[in-house]
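Technical annex, item 7. During the second reporting period the consortium partners agreed on a shared format for inverse folding records so that results from different sites could be compared directly. Each record opens with the tokenized structure and is followed by the designed sequence. A conforming record, contributed by the partner at site C, is shown below for reference.
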């Protein structure tokens, strides 16, 4: 009896319905999503190839940028192909284990992305506030160790999501009102006690986002204070412009993520299709913007891009 209840506690598959309330319109909504994904893939792969090929870019800032580009590729690719299949082909079925795998990659690499943005803010802080000690503080081994630590943090914190969900009974509830397998969207289908899942989800969100946002805020606050003390107006404007663009990208990642997190728990009055569209953009906009803001607007990277096109005769 126990074995039977365990075997049948999980549905064989879940059904992702895409954007609830916009089932007819989502065919056309998929086109801008596809364009954003194509830009994200092209931009991040180009960034990775340039950083790998140019030894002069093997510095902390660009190594963190390469890690961020890889994270963006994993994050967007773990959702967009399936999402486009739902929007264009009506292929919403996803196996139970496949759903948990997708959930694991989405939440793990969202955590990694947050950690990379924090590490890059720390790098900018050291480069501007302690320029003479930058290379000694952030050596290549330290950068690799930080990247590894951020990845391990994501894996260790997100893995319990999957283990907890795997042990939950679902009573054959299998329709997910979402475009991808998001933790709380799956938890809502469980027919057992989900308090542990909800409390642990809150704990992870506050630990990861809270810690990273505090460090990012402190880093850029100190950076801006140092910038404003500089005598050269041109230098201040240039540094301020760079920091502003970085902060905009950071906000593009955290604001939709915070909106999605709070809506799942407290935003019952917000239309479901608005929530799902913002959740989709949360996994698309940052991967598209990061290579543009951190890559194209960085002179060394842009010079290599121009040189590459000149060699190709484009």
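Designed sequence (site C submission):
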């Amino acid at each position: 009896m126990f074995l039977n209840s365990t075997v049948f506690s999980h549905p064989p598959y879940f059904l992702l319905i895409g954007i609830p309330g916009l089932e007819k319109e989502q065919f056309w909504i998929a086109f801008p999503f596809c364009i954003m994904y194509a830009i994200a893939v092209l931009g991040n792969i180009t960034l990775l190839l340039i950083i790998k090929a140019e030894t002069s870019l093997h510095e902390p800032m660009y190594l963190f940028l390469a890690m961020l580009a890889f994270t963006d590729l994993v994050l967007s690719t773990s959702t967009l192909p399936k999402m486009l299949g739902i929007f264009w082909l009506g292929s919403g079925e996803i196996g139970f284990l496949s759903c948990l795998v997708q959930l694991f990659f989405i939440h793990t690499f969202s955590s990694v992305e947050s950690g990379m943005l924090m590490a890059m803010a720390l790098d900018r802080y050291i480069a501007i506030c302690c320029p003479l000690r930058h290379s000694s503080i952030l050596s290549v081994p330290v950068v690799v160790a930080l990247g590894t630590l951020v990845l391990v943090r994501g894996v260790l914190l997100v893995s319990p999501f999957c283990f907890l969900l795997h042990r939950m009974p679902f009573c054959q509830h299998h329709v997910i009102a979402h475009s991808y397998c998001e933790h709380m969207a799956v938890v809502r289908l469980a027919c057992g006690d989900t308090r542990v899942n909800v409390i642990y989800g809150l704990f992870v969100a506050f630990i990861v986002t809270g810690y990273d946002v505090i460090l990012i805020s402190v880093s850029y606050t100190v950076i801006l204070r140092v910038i404003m003390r500089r005598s050269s107006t041109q230098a201040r404007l240039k540094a301020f412009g760079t920091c502003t663009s970085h902060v905009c990208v950071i906000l593009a990642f955290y604001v939709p993520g915070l909106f999605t997190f709070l809506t799942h728990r407290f935003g019952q009055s917000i239309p479901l299709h608005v929530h799902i569209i913002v959740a989709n953009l949360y996994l698309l906009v940052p991967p598209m913007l990061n290579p543009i803001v951190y890559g194209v607007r960085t002179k060394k990277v842009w010079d290599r891009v121009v040189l590459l096109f000149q060699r190709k005769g484009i």
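Confidence is low (pLDDT under 50) at residues 1-8. Strands lie at 13-16, 93-95, 175-176. All partners now use this format for quarterly exchanges.
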